[in-house]
Each structure stands twice: as structure tokens, then as C-alpha cells.
Amino acid sequence: MTSDVAEAEEPTRRAMSRLRKLAIGTAIVLVLVLAAVATFGWAIGRRALPEASGEVRLEGLTADVRVLRDERGVPHVYASEPADLFLAQGYVHAQDRFFEMDFRRHVTAGRLAELIGDQESAITADKLIRTFGWRQVAEQELELLAPETQEYLRAYADGVNAYLAEREPSELGVEYMVLGTTVTQESPEPWDPVDSLAWLKAMAWDLRSNYDDELDRALAHSTLADPKLVAQLFPDHAASGNRTILTEADLPEATAAGTEGATSGDGESADGTATNADATQTAEVSSGPSPDAAIDPALFDKSLRSAVTAAQAALDAVPEQIGRGEATGSNSWAVSGDLTESGKPLLANDPHLSLKAPGIWHQVGLHCTEVSDACPFDVAGFGFSGFPGVVIGQNAQLAWGLTNMNADVTDFFIERVRGDTYKRGEKWVDLTTREETIRVTGGTPVDLTVRGTVHGPLVSDVLDDDKAGEAGVDAMVHSPTAEGTDLGDYAISIQWTALEPGRTADAVFAFDTARNAEDIKAAAALFDVPAQNIVFATTDGHIGYQAPGRIPVRNQVDGPVPSDGSWPRPGWDERYDWNGYVDPARMPRALDPAEGFVVAANQAVLPSGVGPYLTRDWDYGYRSQRIRTLLTEQIDSGRQFDAADMSAIQNDDWSAFADLLVDVLLAIELEDDYDAAGQELLRDWDYTMTEDSAAAAYFAAVWNNLLGATFQDELPESMWPDGGDRWLAVLQGMLDEPNHAFWDDKTTVSVRESRDEILTRALTSARQDMTVEISKDPDDWSWGSLHQLELEHEPLGRYGVPSIIRGYMNPAPVGVAGGTSIVNAISWDAAADSYSVTSGPSMRMVVDLADRDASTWVTVTGVSGHPASDHYDDQLPAWADGETFPWPFTREAVESAAQDELTLTP
Hints:
Helices cover 33% and strands 17% of the residues. It is α+β, with helices and mostly antiparallel strands. The strands form 6 sheets. It has an 11-stranded mixed beta sheet, with helices on both faces. Pfam families: Penicil_amidase.
């Protein structure tokens, strides 16, 4: 390898400069910090940063590979063979982000305590992941994959391992040096293809959809004891009045039926016959519970509540890798060439995920030097370090975007457990068991017994350190019948589609080489988990939508709870068992819808009763409806679309929350001029949550206080409103009922509050909050001063690492626009007593199918995972301002933009 001394010293200077700016409390701390500066500067500047230019010899290559990087360090890889291409991608990923990869594989294997030591949070996480058995499932998946996919995964692993060879941990990332001060750090193990597949389980887990709603319904019922009130907390998606992704008219005739054929996990129908688009219906699909659905009160007693609470606490301990809840929204849409200046389609996508340092995505181009059947790749876009290929992006024939479909792919089963058995029908059958040992670096190994039923692993007793079934949080509570018959203890198991081996890895490469709608359909049939909306556009002028995913079929059951998956189901009642999966050929799809565009932003795919039953817990469609409105307004104006219009829509800050509430808030009479000063800001407000807006800041505070005053007295703390779209739909249904039960504050004795009293309380409390948070003078208020993006490095941004290190690893906070359930969905959590950003557009891309080099992209941080690198957070300022960068795609454009070239030789 070659190296330039001046270039090596420059990162050292930057690292030292950044650390000098940190606050220092005492002279002793000053000495320690200066020592850390010298150590960091040397280790990061001279050891951890990779070579971006020159020549490197790699075992396993068959020919030279070129890696061209632009001014933001984004690599484009050119190779003559697929195996060389993915070997080089593995090498590049290890260059840029090996610690991130290593951290992920420790998480997904349940080995986090081996990496970061004897910390309770790590051990707890390991218990949960071992219970799920993500790595065991990944090991089974490897043998299911197409031979070429296995080849790509092995080549990728070879590339990673080539980078690891002869490098000490400190040469791979500063994280190893920091962790090494408290935990012995051995050289990382060689990368294995299973490490890549296990990462797909973490991705699928965070995008799994409605399990929180399912558990929350049970908790809410045990608190409210009124199915109608519970139903009002989970309104039907149609209550918002917003459009679905497709209408029945958009569908091919074969997919429009209200009930669908089911398939078993091995591609056969539920009764064992081969499946096809005309598969015989084997199970009816519930259309969802009505607000008056009967709930057996005996089932949801205190005993079950304890088990549900324990299950929820355990599942919350799974490390978040991509995002949860409101964080897993996204926007994607495509516009027909009939409506664009160029005459070719435009496509936009911005997945809303958790925001970390480094960001979740790694930008890359993967190009065969001569595209052919033998080497079919000419693709660029966004991928995950640790997994080969491109997950979202464009190739020479089409572009595609993904958004979470919110399909219900998890069910909780209430199990009755007695000793080592559980109840099935009238019998007691043996639980499955598996022994696991969690190694803890610097601590004592932890033994774990994983227990499961036919549905899946028991999760309500995972955090019990003494004996399964007797958790300190009352995970399982003895519940004999009135007659004294011992029915055992309540426990909660989870059934999840991703705990069965699948072929999602095959789907990634199928997307990368897709040419048309039929190719997208074929790739979607392989994309088992997570269930995602696929929006695509082609160079020959088509736009379309395709729903993939392994979707359970559930029988209609006249039983103690609705059978559509929206409530925990009695595991002893076999009628509630899954009955195969929806045939992929019947999943919703559309090509060139009549209105000239398609918008998928997590809203319902189809109206109720049309197509296969997917879930009842959709996003309520406020973002999607705003996108539709902006598209329709421009169409009606007669002005054609260009890429800049797509970017402008992605940055739209208009709030549907304000549209619903401001007139109601202005109708409240506030007698005190001090209180009214905040309310007056709303009078001429345009409802946009811009960074400099005082009205936006005040409105967010009102919304926060309104939710707290209305619901916190009614619900357990784990259910306190996060302020997302569901709560807007709930309020939308309550505003016309001034004496609705939820308006009453249960903490005030002998007083029944009405809507206007709660609204008054929210307005006055918000005024006081703003005074405390910012200033007494409303002229000093701004949304950006409250709404701060504070990116954390994982794990050095937390896990007990000293603040001086966190300050170095975490980029400086930045105030941002946007908000929850806004198109520019930079969200915050109303239940967290903070306006800090919890999630947002993890990247933004706009693809121009007429001129591939006119496309644009940006990520929240940068391509590098090394804090000393210029490319660690060099895209953050542009991202925060809603700007994007040119996206060179063709070889001519890539070479023109290249600032570094690394040649990998055999």
C-alpha cells in the first residue's frame, strides 16, 4: 500500500482540533483530555483511516478492480466478474465501516457482552437475541439461497477478511482502542456469510409493524375494561379520510378478490397442493374487529397484564438497529413521464428510520465493466455495511424505492404453561427447550434456557434470572380456574415470519438486476421479510407498485378475541393458528395507474375488503395525503415536474396536526394576556414547522401538553402518546365530542373536565413551557431551538462511555425543521418529555429516469464510519438544510467526479 504523509497528518490535525473544542472542567481533566487527543490523533489519523488511492493486492481476485471515490468519499466499484465486484465491496465496507459491521454481528448473534463487556443492557440484549435465535435461522437460510447468491456472499466475506488480514483492532477503528481500555479486545473473527444474513433479521425486526399496538390493546383493555374505548384508541385507518396507495381499479383482475389463497412456508398451499395465482381458498381472512367486538374479560385479567408487561419490557430491550414505531415510516412516489418536463418518470424515496452516527446507509456504485448475462450488475444506491449489493437505488433500466408496508407479520400468543408443558387443545404437550451460554468479557458467563411452543419462543420470562415462569416482574402469574383445575401460568410467545428461513438475500440481487415490472414482481416474491412497499419507475416510461412479503393467513374465529392479529391470541385454541401465507401472486400490484403517479407512505395499500388482508394497523395517511395534494395541485396548474420539484416535496413542512387543531385552539378564550401571547402566534401561521418558526415551537408544546392532559391519566406509562399519526386520528374522532370520557382528568376528584378545559390547560401550559425552555419573550422562540438532532455513535455514544469520548464520537447537535407525520418527517416523541429528534429521513434520493446523472442523493451523516474522516458527517449540513448532492451514475460521470482511485489487483 502507498501513503502520503501530509494526507495522513491532516486527519490527525482535524481530530485534535475537534477535541480541543470540548469543555474541560478541571486541570486534571485537561491533562487527561490532552493525552486522549494525542492518542486519538495518532490512532485515528495514522491507523484507522483507510487508503483511498494507490494499489492493493487482494487474494481471490481474478482481475483488477477499480474503486473510484468522489469528493464525499462515495465509492463506485468497477469489476469484470460478479465475484470480484462483491469481494471488492466487502473490502470497501471493511475500509469504511468495519466496527459498525462487527458491532452488528455481535448484536445479531446475541454476543454483544463479548464486545462491550459486563454491562446489564448488553447481557439483556443477548438474552433476547438468543431467545429469537436470529443466527440459527440465518444459518438455515444460507443453504436455501440460489447458488449465485451464496457465491456473492462468500466473495463479500473474502473481501472483508482480506482487509482484516494483518491489521490490529486499533487499525480497524478507534472504537476498539476505546473499548480496550476497559475490555480486552481480541482480533476480530473472520467475516462469515452468515454474519451478513443475520443482519437481515435485525432489519426485519425493527420493521416488523404492529406488535406494539397488539400488546397495547391488551394493556389498554386491562386498564379501561371497555372494548369501545380501546377501539377509539386504535381507529380504523379509514377514519382519517385519507387515500390508500391503490384503489381496486388499479389492480390486475387476479389480485382484487377479498380473500386469498394461502401458502405454507415451503411454497405449497396450506393443504399441501402446489400454489399458483388461482390457488384454492383454504382459509378465510378476517377483515378486522369492529369497535363492538366482544373481548373475554376473564382472559385480560391482572395475571395476563403482568405477562404482557413482562413481554413488552423484554422486547424493548432488543437493541434498535434501524428504527421503531413512528421511526419506521417512509415516503416514496413515482410520477409518470406524461407529467414531467423530460417525458420520462421521476422517482423519490426517503426512508424514515432512527438517525445515528454513522448513518444507517452506505452509498455505493457496483458496476460490471461490461454488462452481460455473466456479469449483470450496473447499479448504484444505498446498502448496509455488512451485506453485499444495493438495497434501494437505480440500475441502468429502472429505479426503485422502499417504504414499510406495515403488514402484520407478528402475533403474540397467550400460552398456559405448567412446568415444562403447555396447553394445546385439551392436551398438555412438551415445551421445546434450548440451552445457551452468553460469554461476558470481564464477567461471569450467563446460562440461558430458551423455551418455546409451536408458535415460537416464550418472551415473557426471558428477563427472569432465577427460573422461567417466576420473573421478578410477574411475567407469569398462576391462574387456576374457579373450579380449582390447575391451568398453569400465563406466558407470552411470539410468532414472526422472519423466524422461518427465507430468501430475502436472493431478492436484493434480483432488485439490483431487475429490468421491468415482471422482474420486480419476481424479486418481490423472494422478499420474505420485512414486508415493504416497492415503488418503481423504468427508463422505458413505466411506473408501478408492488407489495412483497410473507403474509400470514389467519382463520376467522368466533372466540374470546378478534382473530385478525390485532390482539394477543389464546395459544391453546388451535383455531387461532396461522394457516399458511398469502400466495405471492395475489399480492397487490399496479402498473401505470390512471392518475399518473403512485404514492406509498405507509398508508393502507387498499380499501378494506379489497385484496388480501394485510393488517388493520396502518399509518393513517397524513403524509401520503399531503404528497398527493402537492402532486395534484401542480398537475392542475399545468406545470410539468422536474427533479427539483421532487426534492421540494420531500422537504415540505406543512402540518396536518395544525390543520386539524389551530382553529379549535384559537376559539378558546384566554383572559390573561401573558397566556394569550403564545396563542396569538397561531393566528397568522401557515402551519409549516420551519426551523425559525416561533408558532411551530409553541404549537408543538401545545400538542405535547394536550396529549399528556388528555391521556396520561387513563393509560399505563408504556402507552403514553408518542404524538404520532394514530394520536392525531384519535383526536380527530374526539373533537366533536366535548364531553368524551377521555377529556375528563381522572386525577381530579369530583370534577369532570370537558374538551375546552383540557384545551385551555394545554395552551397555558405550553406558554409556561416555552418561557422555561427558551424565553419569556415569544420573539425569541424558534422550533429549531427545541427540535434538535443529536446523533449518537453506537456504542460509544452510550453504554457508559465517558462523556469526553461521546463528545468526540457524536456530531454536534443541529436544529432542524419538520416533525412527526409531516412529509419532512423528522420526528420527536411526545412521551419522552423532549422535542429532540428520534427519527427522520435516513437518506433522500430523487432519480431522473431521463438523465441518470441528473439524479440526487444525500445521507444524514456520510459514507465513513471513522470520526476523523472528512466523510464521517460531511453530508449532515446539507441534509439538515434539505439539500442534496449530484449522483453520478454513468461511467463518464463517475470518472469525471472521481477524486481518488484505488486499484485492487490479484
